[in-house]
Amino acid sequence: MNLRKILKKSSKNKDVSIQDNFINYLEGIGDVLSFETQRKNNRLLLDGLSKINDIILKTFEIRKSNPKKFAKLIYEKEVAEELAINEENSEITKLIIMNNPNKYLIGFSTSINQIFRVYESANDLKNKETKEISLSFIIRILSFLSSGEKNEIFIEHILNKLVEKIVDSIKYNESEQDIPLGLFQWYIAIIFYNTAKKDDSFNIEYLKSFNKYFGLVVRYVISEERDYLFKLFIKSLGGFSISPYEYVANLIWDIKTINFEAFREANNEMSIAE
Hints:
Blueprint: H1 3-12, H2 18-39, H3 42-65, H4 67-74, H5 77-83, H6 91-99, H7 101-104, H8 106-124, H9 128-145, H10 152-172, H11 182-195, H12 207-223, H13 227-237, H14 246-256, H15 260-273
Helix pairs in contact: 1-2, 2-3, 2-8, 3-4, 3-8, 3-9, 8-9, 8-10, 9-11, 10-12
């Protein structure tokens, strides 16, 4: 069943909302993906993750042609009603949604959660390859959203969940070598590679959010004294010290030139003083 069939089915069955059918379908895919993760069936995983990716892209196409239908699919009823009064990206709407995005962005958060379910299942199995695959789809969706307009609340939601997974991976993985590179490469992949595209280039209005979350991860790695992971960060930045955005170039230079040992000593001294 594809998105068009879900919408047709909902129009026929008045007892079940469009959003309920949408969520049930996504969660059904997620259940299958979690099972296939256990079986290490990467071919079916790729197929299922591609379906979720396509559904998200098509849903945002609906946003352009039919904003009301998009709202019914994506937002919780209270927010959908608020959108009838205020613009989608109004400060009032943002405050309501960011207070509890899993609830208020229910259609969108459900779709993203299915991809993170694959990551979590793979993490439990210590299956690094499957973790990399799921992360590649998160990066793909972030790239798509960051090339459009008025997507801040959706981007913030994904970045927040992504940073949660990064912190958990650093906290609970026994071996730092088991942590997938995708957890470090998303910033470069989205900002630099998207910028190189002509049609889908990175929208600079989201740069502040990306820098904020990337900076949080770097600071966390250093504060936890994870020297190996910090070197992975430096490696992920590679030769990217030139950027069309001066702030990005400065940020990368600052990270590359951090004296890890000096920072660690200063951090220890602050902890003792406290």
